[in-house]
Design brief:
257 residues, mainly alpha, 3 domains, two-stranded antiparallel ribbon, 10 helices, 4 strands, 47% helix
Length: 257
């Protein structure tokens, strides 16, 4: 019998002035896997270092497995999402854009074959929109406006093919509404809210949101009872954190109550 483990990762946060312990963690993991008659494959492993310090002292830190040095990469794919060492989503957006462009021919071919508009919309949802919104609760609210428009352009091109008319930026949302299609922007918000509701119902992950949830005491009259919101706002020191998943999710859940 052979066993395989895909997409396994180890993450370590190193404070300034501390020494990374990642090699010890990898060595321990490797020894435990050998006890289970498994092994790490250095050829399919890599290291990504996010170093925001001024001196970049850990940017070239070496990680080894059985005396084999793992390659240090600037970006890597984890569960289908590209993560880079700049902590932005430029690589992932570019990858999604190119992948969706390659799928556009399916709609063109089906359009020329005389497929109905209803079935073309289903093809768009299955083959293109599924790519454009994969993992969007993680990255979609952290991308800039230029990247948002780049992904929206894919939807406009698909709608232009389906409708037989050019769809401009100004008519984008109106065409989606006329075709009974939820546009990408609204879809992301809807999926984020659904993700938040699932988190609150999941015993394993609900602690991600519980610190920001307002617990009301129905017996005594406190200031929390006077608060009309079910979530307290998150104080963010940086714009990057403000636009990340949890603060954005709490904001939407707060606004929707």
């Amino acid at each position: 019998m052979k066993a395989f483990v895909d997409d396994m990762c180890i993450a370590e946060a190193v404070t300034y002035g501390s020494v990374p312990m990642i090699n010890e963690y990898v060595s321990f993991l490797n020894s435990e896997m050998k006890n289970m008659k498994m092994c790490l494959n250095p050829k399919k492993s890599n290291v990504i270092i996010i170093d925001n310090s001024r001196d970049k002292r850990f940017s070239n830190y070496k990680v080894t497995v059985d005396n084999v040095e793992l390659p240090n990469v600037s970006s890597t794919k984890l569960l289908g999402v590209l993560i880079n060492n700049k902590c932005d989503w430029s690589d992932h957006v570019e990858s999604v854009y190119k992948k969706a462009c390659k799928k556009m021919y399916i709609i063109r071919k089906m359009k020329s074959a005389g497929i109905s508009k209803k079935h073309l919309i289903l093809l768009y949802s299955a083959h293109l929109r599924s790519i454009l919104e994969y993992g969007c609760v993680l990255w979609s609210f952290s991308i800039n406006q230029k990247q948002v428009e780049k992904l929206n352009s894919i939807e406009r091109r698909a709608l232009s093919i389906i409708s037989g008319k050019y769809v401009s930026k100004s008519k984008h949302f109106d065409v989606c509404k006329s075709m009974n299609i939820e546009n990408l922007v609204d879809r992301r918000v809807c999926m984020l809210n659904k993700f938040g509701i699932k988190l609150l119902k999941n015993n394993r992950f609900k602690h991600w949101l519980e610190p920001f949830q307002i617990k009301r005491n129905r017996v005594s009259y406190t200031r929390h009872n006077r608060n009309k919101f079910n979530f307290r706002s998150i104080k963010c020191r940086s714009e990057r954190y403000l636009r990340s998943t949890i603060p954005t999710l709490v904001k939407h859940l707060r606004d929707s109550t």
